[in-house]
User: What shape does this take?
Amino acid sequence: MDRKSSFPARLASLRKWRGLSQLQLAAAADCSQRHISFLELGRTQPSREMMQRLSVALALSFRQSNDLLLAAGFAPIWSDTPFDAETLAPIRRALDFMLQQQEPYPAAVVDRRWNLLQANKGAVAMVEFLVGPLTSGAPINLADALVAPDVLRRYLTNWQEVVAYFVRSVEADAASDATKETAALRDRLLGYPGVQESLATPFAETVAAPILPMRFAKGEVTLELFTTLTILGMPQDAALQEIRIESFFPMNEATRQIFGRWATPEADAR
Assistant: This one.
């Protein structure tokens, strides 16, 4: 099946994924239910302007919008620029600035599927303390590092709680972007030992804290952190729309002091 002939099926799938009837989608896209029906049956070809209205009505990401345009035989609207491209140099500098401002606490830039793009010294110090020196140039996926049994798991004392929360967020991402790549990440995470059991654990009847911390322990060192996620404002590129900046903050004075010592050159780093 070529891209153009797959458009009717893709449109119907996206509509159902959003939980919309043909009438509801027609109202959101400012057209008739009959027109939506004809589009899904392949009896009518959409105009480029209608494609834009459908993308807005379905709340599609830039990447999804491009894919739907291609399926209908149109060129994509949104660029998808490699992160290391020269045109993104100002963006990388801004991200570097943000990461530096987070020192000595960890911060990292990741893509939609948690592939590491940039990290500050605090993040490198924490990971190297826990798991040893990083292999220069080797790709790192933070989702795998968190959920797999042989990386961070043995040091994360509340792994079951954290992984249940995290995997549910990846499941939501997979449902939201409906791409094979995010679905593959979800399935890979669900296949790791202990993940299904963590997801099946009932929620506590009462929640003791306003935010779920990550508690790491190695030897006599314990770290208690919470994280924030930041996105770029007003992106016009599919890859930039998907970027996230994850920043870690200490939950207590002991954790704050440990990161301060790691950032001091003359301190005993480990």
User: Anything to note?
Assistant: The CA atoms of residues 23 and 33 lie 5 Å apart.
